[in-house]
Structure prediction request, 320 residues.
Amino acid sequence: MNCWDDVWEVPLPLPFALKIIKSYVIKGSNGYTVVDTGLHYDGDLEAWERARRSIGFEWKDVEQIVLTHYHPDHYGLAGWMQEKTGAPVRMSRTDFEQAQLFFSKSSEQPEVMARFYGEHGLEAEWKEQIPPHLRGFQKWVDPHPDPEFIEAGGTIRLGDREYRILHTPGHADGHLSFHDEERGWLIGGDFLLPRITPNISLWPGCDPDPLGTYLATLDQMDTLPVKRVFPAHGSVFENYHGRIEELREHHRERLEEMAGWAEAAGVTAVEACYRTFGTNLSIHNLRFALSETLAHLEYLRLRGKLVREKEEGVWKYRKA
Prediction:
C-alpha cells in the first residue's frame, strides 16, 4: 500500500473487468478522510479491514467520506461506512440523484435502458439481459448513504489541507475532483486515468452530449497547474497535460472512424460498437461499449456531421 505524505492509496478488488479501484485515505488532525469506497461485498470489506490495520486507524477515527461520483465502485460502500463510522458522506447532488435513478429498487431505469438499446439495434437475446444485469448492482450499493451535498467552486478540507472542489463531468454528470493548489495534487476519481480511457457513455435520462461535455472538461482542466494525479484506476502519475492531449487524440481518432462508417453506408450504434470493440463481450462490457459508441455518434449528430433515421424501428446514422 503506497503512501505520499498524508495520503494513502488503498487498492480494492472488483468482481468485474476493471479488477481494482483505488480509494484514498487522508490523515488529518481531526481524523481520517476516505475518498471513494469500493463496493459493498466481502472482497472490499476484507480489503478495508487490512488497510485500516495497516494505516493504523479505527472506524471511529473517520471524520468524513467524500465521493467523486455515483458509480458503484466509488459509491457502493458509502452507506455501510457511514453507519459504521457515524461520519458524513459528501458528494454532488447530481450524482446522488443519479445513484437513485440507476440503483434504487423502485427505479424503472433498467427497463428504460433495455428499450433504449433495442432502438439502437441491440439483439433481443442481449436486450433481455439488461434489466437483471443492472439490478444486480443493487446489492453492491446497499444501504445508500444519507449525504451532505458539496458543490464546485468552493473548497473542502481533506486531512489538514484545503482542496478546491472542481466539477469534472463527462464520465459522470456530477463528477467532482479535488485540487490541492499549493502542492499541485489532484484527486481525480475517473476524470483522468493513466492507462485506460475513462468511459464516456450516453445514458437515457442523463447528459445528452457526454462526449462534448468531457472534451470541454479536458480543455478547462488543461489550464490547471497539476504536478501529481491520484486516479481511481491505475498508478499515481505526473504526466497530467500530456495525458489530457492523449485522450483528446484518442477521441478525435474514434470520431473520424465512426464518421467514416456512417458516411459510407450508414451504421447503427450496435454495428459501430461491434466494429470498434468486437463481439466477444460480456453483458457488462457490452453495456459500456454500446453506450460509449452512442456518445460518439450523438456527438457527431449534434454537430451536424451525421443524421439519424429510423428503419424498421432501429436508428441508423448517416452522413448529414
